[in-house]
Write a structure and sequence with these properties.
single chain, 208 residues, mainly alpha, 9 helices, globular
């Protein structure tokens, strides 16, 4: 009887989590579209990460998810767009430089340096919005802290990459995930391992 009860509780919790992920997915799409796609992407993404951070910290979750999501995207609209669009512009510029280098310049050392910078920029992107969600900092300090987290949190960074690949791999076999739950599932490993990296650095900072 106890085993059946435990199985029922587990099924209920799994169903509850699945419903939460689906709701986050559709809310993300709604607010991305509401922001004109380009200006809605980063506020909506930061809000999903913030929701996961609330879960990880075991804080009370909002009773009305739509109202909370709307409030958070409005609150974070300008700064998250400034951070995200600048980071996207940097990555785009590095990508263009890489293409020019490989096609016209064909300098191995320059190409290697640009490749390292581009990969570093991608990895910094994993931490940029989590740092923004966690702290209230001057603008450029967000980039510095995201860079430092990338440097000192190699296991977490590798785990993020593996998590993103696993979710993407799963979606190729279950395409329905792309339509009902892909975005929160993709952001979950990024959020979780960024949260672990942030907590680790905070603990080390407090010890010193």
């Amino acid at each position: 009887m106890k085993q059946s009860r435990g199985l029922f509780d587990l099924s209920y919790r799994l169903g509850d989590y699945l419903l939460m992920v689906i709701r986050l997915h559709f809310l993300w799409f709604f607010f991305v579209l509401r922001g004109g796609i380009i200006f809605g992407f980063f506020p909506a993404t930061a809000t999903v990460i913030r929701y996961f951070f609330e879960i990880f910290a075991k804080k009370p979750l909002p009773a009305e998810l739509y109202s909370w999501f709307k409030q958070q995207t409005a609150k974070n609209f300008w700064r998250s767009n400034q951070l995200g669009l600048l980071q996207m512009a940097i990555l785009l510029l590095l990508w263009i430089e890489l293409r020019i280098s490989s096609t016209f310049l064909q300098n191995a050392f320059l190409h290697f340096g640009l490749t390292v910078l581009f990969i570093s920029g991608l990895l910094i992107s994993f931490y940029l919005l989590p740092v923004f969600v966690r702290y209230h900092l001057p603008f450029w300090v967000y980039f510095r802290n995201a860079f430092l987290l990338m440097i000192v949190s190699v296991p977490q960074t590798i785990a993020m990459i593996l998590g993103v690949f696993l979710v993407t791999f799963a979606a190729t076999f279950l395409p329905i995930l792309l339509f009902i739950a892909f975005i929160p599932l993709l952001l979950l490993p990024i959020s979780w391992f960024a949260y672990q990296a942030i907590q680790k650095t905070e603990l080390l900072t407090n010890e010193h």
